[in-house]
Specification:
Strand content of chain B: under 5%
Keywords (chain A): ATP-binding, Ligase, Mitochondrion, Nucleotide-binding, Protein biosynthesis, Transferase
Distance between the termini of chain A: 14 Å
Structural class of chain A: alpha/beta
Strand content of chain A: 5-15%
Strand order of the largest sheet of chain A: 1-3-2-4-6-5-10-11-9-7-8
Number of strands of chain B: 2
Organism (chain A): Callaeas wilsoni (North Island kokako)
Oligomer: heterodimer
Order of helices and strands of chain A: HHEHEHEHHHEHEEHEHEHHHHEHHHEEHH
Radius of gyration of chain B: 22 Å
GO molecular function, one term (chain A): glutaminyl-tRNA synthase (glutamine-hydrolyzing) activity
CATH architecture of chain A: Alpha-Beta Complex
Radius of gyration of chain A: 22 Å
Helix content of chain A: 25-40%
Largest interface: A-B, 73 and 61 residues
CATH topology of chain A: Amidase signature (AS) enzymes
Shape of chain B: flat
Distance between the termini of chain B: 32 Å
Helix content of chain B: 25-40%
Protein name (chain A): GATA amidotransferase
Structural class of chain B: mainly alpha
Number of helices of chain B: 4
GO cellular component, one term (chain A): glutamyl-tRNA(Gln) amidotransferase complex
Chain lengths: 526, 109
Amino acid sequence: ATLKDGLRSQVSAALKEGRVTPTELCRRCLALIKSTKFLNAYITVAEETALKQAEESEERYKRGQPLGILDGIPIAVKDNFNTAGIETTCASNMLKGYISPYNATVVQKLLDQGAVLLGKTNLDEFAMGSGSTDGVFGPVRNPWSYSKQYKEKSVPKSHSEDEESNWVITGGSSGGSAAAVSSFTCFAALGSDTGGSTRNPAAHCGVVGLKPTYGLISRHGLIPLVNSMDVPGILTRCVDDAAVLLGSLAGHDPKDSTTIQDDFKPFELPNLTDVSKLSIGIPKEYHAPGLSSEILALWSKAADLFKNAGAKVVEVSLPHTRYSIVCYHVLCTAEVASNMARFDGLEYGHRSDTKESTESMYAATRREGFNDVVRGRILSGNYFLLKQNYEKYFVKAQKVRRLIANDFVKVFRSGVDILLTPTTLSVAAPYMEFIQEDNRTRSAQDDILTQAANMAGLPAINVPTALSERGLPVGLQFIGRSFQEKQLLTVAKWFEKQVQFPMIQLEEVKRHDNGVFQHQQSASFS
Amino acid sequence: QKVSLEVLDHLEHLALVDFRDSEGVERLQKAIQFADQLHEVNTDGVEPMDSVLEDRWCLYLREDDVTEGNCTKELLENAREKVEEYFVAPPGNIPLPKLEEREAFLQGS
C-alpha cells in the first residue's frame, strides 16, 4: 500500500492483511512531514504520541480486532480544534503555549476509532482569512508550487529567481490541512468552514473539501468563530474517503446543542452509473465578476458532462447571492466580537504584564495577543452591535440571511437536486501578489462563491476538476440539500470519476513512498 | 458620515481592543461603508433568522443535573496568575482613561 491509496478500498485491506503496518504508515508520514517542512503546513507535530497510537493500533490488527476503517490511519487536525495535551494555538499569540485540557468531540471520535493524530495544522489567525497567510507562524505554501506540473509551466523571470519567490498560496483558512492532505503527509485532515475555509483551500490544493450540513457534526471543542455558521470540515484525497470520515464524525453530541438529534447512519457511496434522474442546477449569479475565463470554461464543460450523460441541467437563480458577503461581514464580525470576549488573559492564553487595573490588563492582553485582522473584526462587530446600530445592521443582516436561505429552498423545491458552481474565482495566487491587498478585501473577494452555503447551512463539497494552464488545481463545487450528504457525495464521486484529476507529482513524495510494497501509481483512486 | 471620536472611544471601551492608529479607524470606516450595502435589500415582512435549524427545534435545554466537573486542577493549569484555587486579577473598578490619556497608561504593549 502507498500513501496514495484510498482508505476504504485499499489501505484498510492492506492493514488488515498485514501488507503494511500502522507504524510504517505513521513513520512514512512523519518522514514526509519533515522533508516538506518548507510548506509550513504543520504548527505542531505530535511525533511521540502518534507513534504510540500507531503501536497500539498495530497490536489491535495483530489480534485481528481493528476498531474500524480508520484504525491506524494518520490524520491531521487544524489548530483551532482542542486536542488534549497538545498545544492548540489558532495561529495566534493569544493562545501560544495553551495546552488543551480536553479533546474536541470530533478529535475524540477519531481517536476512539484508532486514528493516529500526527499533528496540528497551520491556518489564518483564528480562522480569519482566505489565504492561510495571516497566522503568527507564517504562511502556508501550496504543495503545487513545487509540483512538476507547475514548475514545467512557470517561466522564471531571471536565473536567480527560484521557487522561493514564486510559490503560491494554499487559500484558507484551513490551508495547513489542505496542504497536508495534498502533499500526502496524512490521509485526511480536519478543517473548519465558516465562509468557505475548507472548500477554498481544497480547490487551490487539488483535494476534496467537504462542508457538512450545519448541525450534522459537533462543534464542541472547535474554537468558535461564528457559532451560527461554523462547521468542522473534512479534507481528503478522494470523495470515498470523505464519506468514511463523515461516517465516523456525524451524529448528535449532547455537548453541542446545535447538533440535530436524528439518528445518523454512516453510508458507503454507491457507484452511480445512471444520472438520467438527476437534476443539476446552475445558479447564474455564480458567474460572478472576476471569475476567470478558465474556470468559467471548466464549469461549462462540467455542466455539459452531466447533460451528455443524460442528466437534466437547468439554469437557476439565487437572486440574493451578491448580498451574501455583506451579510456575512456583519453577522460574522458581530459573532466574533462576542466570541473573542473570552480572551482576557485570566483563565488561559496570553496575559499582559500590565497590572494597573483589570481593564487595562484585558486591553493590553488583547492588544498583544490578537493581530490586526482579529482586532479589526472585533471592533467592527462591536460597532454593528451598538444599541443605535443593532436594528440597522445586525437584525437587518439576519433578515437578509433568511432571504438568502430562502433562495436555496425555492430552487431545491423546484426539482433541482444538486447545484454546480465554481469554488473560487481564480486559481491560487502567488504569495507576493496575494499580500498586496488586505485580509478583509481578500476575504470578501474569495468567499463569494462559498459563503452562501454557510448562510443557509447547506452541505457543499469541492471536487478537484482539472489543472489550469499554469499547472494549478481548479475545483468545482456541488451544493446539496440539508442533510442529504449521501446524495451530494454520490454525485461528487461520479463527477470525480469522470474528470480523473491528475495526481500531484512531488519529488519528496516519490522519495518516501517507494514502500516495501510496489504499487501501481494510478491517477484515479477507485 | 465619519464615526465620531466619542463612538470610537466607546467602542474601545466595549471591545477592550484599541484601534492602535488611524489605519485602524480607516478600516472601521471601510467596514461600515461595506455593510451599508445591506440597505439596498428590501426586507419588509421578513423575520430575522437566528439559526438555520429553527425548524428542527433542536435548541433544547438539558436537565439541570451535574454530569461533569471536578477538574479544578486541569483548568487552573492554563492560568498564569493564580493563588490556591483562584484566578488572580489586578484591581477592578478602575475605568480605562479617555483616549487622550491612553498612551501613557498602557505600558509595555
